């Protein structure tokens, strides 16, 4: 028997990540086995979660994943833990379309209570109607209580708690308004080494929360969950595929479910486009997104690896590359300063991060009769593009057409879309489309 709760807020930047990281570290200090999860497709917050808890951060996303896949993910990664701590995305009811895909929808699907983090910097008793509105807006979403962030003093907190008492919403404490314990907004330029610098900050947050937050009360108010036995399906596919996955400082936007699904079909070997000089023996290469723009010189100078990947592709090797991985397979990547760095030179285009343009949103890709769900988030764009594209339909979350493309040359496929393929069936579908 374990417990489970969701952390959300009225809006972004209210402090839910600060509270999440502090609680994760606090639970770890208390030798409470905790498993972190993140609502939505974000790759950065799960890396912070792993730093805080020592357990791999895992995404839960109702747009990209089916309900069964969400349940299976929770069950698999939370099977040996005492508490599942799920951080929400944006504001509680903010979804791709109204509240679809929102933290609120996740709370309803999982029948899991929500701990609200409310920014109290410039408010006192007026939090009462705000909290009451969120608590009553959707009766299916259970608000278990509130933690206030950026509280100025104990007197300030007394006013806030009084407001909670008057509307019968439990108050579990507060975080002081201390700037030195704030986690900055995450962005694409933040690399793994930057994240590790925040270990001491997370320690400070946990120490503060231990003084001012009733974490035992939060645990008691959480939902009790029982792990379900996972039925093992006997695959008819020979499990002998050798997957080579690019993973280093430049390429690391990888959902752990992808790796688990590949391992069901064979062996997963990691390699580094930055540090290795030759590919491992493999059947299929997966080059995920990440931060290639932060390592352009190093990637460009590793000519042996560039040649090794190009040779593999030219010899009918199977490759799937997304976002930064796709950029890496192009002729060159142009930096913010308009410097040109040669890359693999397989796809006939260049990518540039000069004159940044933000592209983001959920995507539904239909290739032949197969549908893949995913998302885009990038500032770069392609130029001098003469590469062959698939006849695929790629729609946004509201069903509108996008200008996003899926490229395919021989058995190499690439796109700006981070597609989700976290099951054995989805990996096989991807391999099949690459081989068509």
Automatic annotation (TrEMBL):
Among the Pfam families in the record, one is CbiA
This enzyme catalyses: cob(II)yrinate + 2 L-glutamine + 2 ATP + 2 H2O = cob(II)yrinate a,c diamide + 2 L-glutamate + 2 ADP + 2 phosphate + 2 H(+)
Q: Which residues form the CobB/CobQ-like glutamine amidotransferase domain?
A: 244-423
The residues annotated as site (Increases nucleophilicity of active site Cys) are 418
Domain CobQ/CobB/MinD/ParA nucleotide binding stretches: 6-188
Query: What EC numbers are recorded for this enzyme?
Result: 6.3.5.11
Functional summary from the UniProt entry:
Catalyzes the ATP-dependent amidation of the two carboxylate groups at positions a and c of cobyrinate, using either L-glutamine or ammonia as the nitrogen source.
* NCBIfam families the UniProt entry points to: cobB, PRK01077.1
Question: Any idea what this protein is called?
Answer: Cobyrinate a,c-diamide synthase
